[in-house]
Amino acid sequence: MAVLHVSRSEAHFIKDFKRYGPPTFDGESERATAAEEWIRELEAFYAYLGCEDQFKVKGAVFMLRGEALNWWDSIAAAEDHANVTIPWARFKDLLYDYYYLETVKDMKEAEFLHLVQGTLSVAQYERKFTELSRFALELILNAAMKIKRFVKGLSKGIRGPVDLQRPASYAEAVRGALIMDKDVSNKAPSLPEVGSSSGVKRKFHPTYADPSLRAPQHQAQHRGMPPVCPTCQKRHAGQCWTGSKGCFRCGRERHFARECPMSAANTQRLGQRISPTVSTQGNNQRARVFALTRKEAADAETVVTGNPRNRAVRVFVVSFYTIRVSFDC
Questions:
Q1: Which of 62, 222, 265, 289 has its CA 20 to 30 A from that of 30?
Q2: Of the candidates 99, 22, 97, which has an alpha carbon nearest to the alpha carbon of residue 56?
Q3: How far is CA 6 from CA 12, 42, 248, in A?
Q4: pTM for the full model?
Q5: How many Cα atoms are found within 13 Å in the side-chain-facing hemisphere of 273?
Q6: Shared domain check, 316 and 299
Q7: Residue 158's domain spans which residues?
């Protein structure tokens, strides 16, 4: 391990330096910019303390830990930096060559080149702009270049007004963008407010993602329709005859649903086969036709008299179907 020769003045510097809690560096961070960030923090301490260049390297070495300290020991042994003063710029180059790869800097520079506000607020965009600008200092060599690139990345509704103001400084450009961002936010249409039981107004946020919110409309579309049968999963009223050997409409055997006498279509068709009207002695009224099964026809009497309205009912069979016709007497 390298041996540090510390003079009285150096010891005094390190004592003051350590008092302010400078950051350490162990070289194990997964952040690709960890070494660069550590150097920036150290230089902020040095600037505050008015540190001379001859103490900067020893102050940095004093804050190395773990893997980073092992790295420096190997460098110091190879180049005899333990006994020879190394310039601060040289120390940074050695550190960056090992912990801050050129590919990382290129990636950050490309990110800065393509940076736009997008969905960010102006404050968020400005923070990102400042963070990445240090990786592309050659692109913002002066204030005019920095202002131009910052304004170029602003959203369209903010960029135009800020550009028309011709800001003389970067701070003025940022301030103008922040004001415009606030104006745009205030002009954005607000959602209607609805009252609550507590009297506090709440924003109403309509949504159609929740199926329960669409339930009333869905139910309205099927209002007046038969319910869905749990047996056959079809819509119909009454008992379900699925799985039985009889007619699906009336449940009786020896005919199919399409031939069922209970069908409105079959009843109408049978009614058309019979004379639609029957003349009586005193009245000319339309006969009424009722469909019966064969069993009902067998059980019924041929003629029923004594009707309260003096009507006779004759039951007879037409083809397969049994028909009952009432006649006014």
A1: 62
A2: 22
A3: 10, 20, 105
A4: 0.44
A5: 13
A6: yes
A7: 105-185
